Amino acid sequence: MNIPKHIAIIMDGNGRWASKRCLPRIAGHQQGVNAVRTVVKACGKLGVKTLTLFAFSSENKNRSKEEVSLLFKLFLTVLKQEVKKLNKHNVRLKIIGDLSLFPEDVQKTAAEAQMQLADNTGLTLVIAANYGGQWDIAQAAKQAAEAVVKGNIKPEDVTIERFSNYLSLAGEPALDLLIRSSGELRISNFLLWDIAYSELYFTDTLWPDFNEAELQKAIKSFNDRDRRFGSRKDNSC
Questions:
Q1: Is-catalytic flag, 12?
Q2: Statement: the pTM of the whole predicted model exceeds 0.90
């Protein structure tokens, strides 16, 4: 089986999982953390190079103050709890997005966790927090424009390849497979540049119920695709 080098997941359905059980929404987010552990472990075992998880979108800040506050606390708690386990399994951590929205203690813990795991050589776990695809492209365009103004590059030097170097996932393998749980059929402003030629997989499974078997289904679907990257196969006899 061909294992994708880079998998990204929109982890959707925590709230609905909790509602079905008459539980508060934060209970769904807490259960979703267990699914994250399972998938990170499975990807490491399969030999996936990079796993990118959509933890907190730039639009999530529009939710109730109580839920956003609880999400911040959960993010901080998980970072502190998981860094030793990630280090033990040789996982490198990268956090992308505009972290200025987060409280100072969260920003500090995020920076320390990335630094502690920076030299690991196994799976790269990318957490997208307060991230949006449009924001990513806009901040990349700003950096490219600043480089032109400073005279470091010329306008004609801004090619697709060079522009990609300013994006949050610069240096990571091209995104092969994007998975979304919970049955929703949309991208929700996630990795808009990076999904140009990735395969999309949607499942009705709510994120807290997502497990290694569900991951294997997505990878099997990926293997059943005919990836041509815009070209056309020669079907002549």
A1: yes
A2: yes
